[in-house]
Write a structure and sequence with these properties.
- The structure is a single chain.
- The chain is of the alpha/beta class.
- The chain has 2 domains: 76 residues, OB fold (Dihydrolipoamide Acetyltransferase, E2P); 150 residues, Trna Endonuclease, Chain: A, domain 1 (3-Layer(aba) Sandwich).
- A hairpin with a 5-residue loop joins strand 9 and strand 10.
């Protein structure tokens, strides 16, 4: 199984306030109030609720302004741990690609991470095992769930839309195949789709990309205070409605 283990590295605190996109105020077990780095710039309104438990990891970098990083929280409405680190999906997917454990990409092998095309950098470049074809893969983190459906994005993402538009142009040009892999950092969802009520432009771009042959697929994750592990496939619905 592809996973990131936390072992005994996390402490449980209490979320108090979000000071800005990347900084929280939390109470740690000693009772002191600390500023905490948040690795997810999304809105996270349904997760960052005052008084909610939040799991933190101490930083080993003495130069950092914040001594702690937020790792996960708990969605009491669904009884679900949810990861708050947008870097974990790429780490999990990298290992899964190295071990050839992504079924939808069984005919492809990893060539390079952080691959640059023109002025843009894409998460992964893969090559076909039998043909001279290349595939660009972007990974997107999903934390928002409504009525059992994962939604992306939970805040307007001009960068995310631009990446999907560029993938569409490259797919249409024929030099590359293109795909987007959504990683839901939780398990309580039956599918993943866009959120036109939040970012209608991204929803339009995503639907157009699918119409032009860009592939979309998803995975959920098992999240506990001990680990985050890549879970099974989750269908992706590309229509805005």
């Amino acid at each position: 199984m592809v996973e990131i283990q936390f072992r005994d590295n996390l402490v449980q605190g209490i979320f108090l306030e979000r000071l800005n996109r990347f900084v929280l105020e939390c109470q740690i077990p000693s009772g002191s109030i600390e500023k905490v780095h948040l690795p997810d710039p999304g809105r996270l309104k349904e997760l960052l609720v005052r008084g909610n438990p939040i799991w933190l990891q101490a930083s080993t970098d003495p130069k950092r302004k914040t001594k702690w990083s937020a790792v996960m929280t708990y969605d009491a409405s669904n009884g679900m741990y949810v990861s708050l680190n947008t870097q974990y999906p790429n780490r999990l997917v990298l290992e899964a690609l190295q071990q050839e454990m992504v079924e939808e990409l069984k005919d492809w092998q990893l060539e390079k991470a952080e691959y640059k095309v023109g002025g843009s950098r894409f998460d992964f470049l893969l090559t076909h095992k039998r043909h001279e074809q290349k595939l660009l893969l972007e990974v997107k983190s999903v934390t928002m769930v409504e009525d059992g459906m994962g939604k992306f994005p939970d805040a307007v993402t001009s960068r995310g839309a631009r990446h999907v538009e560029e993938l569409t142009h490259l797919q249409m040009g024929g030099s590359y195949q293109a795909a987007v892999l959504f990683i839901a950092q939780r398990t309580d969802l039956s599918g993943i789709t866009s959120a036109p009520e939040i970012d209608p432009h991204f929803a339009r771009v995503m639907e157009e990309a699918a119409n032009q042959g860009v592939r979309f697929f998803g995975r959920s994750c098992i999240v506990t205070p001990e680990r985050i592990a890549l879970n099974g496939p989750v269908p992706v619905y590309t229509k805005k409605d």
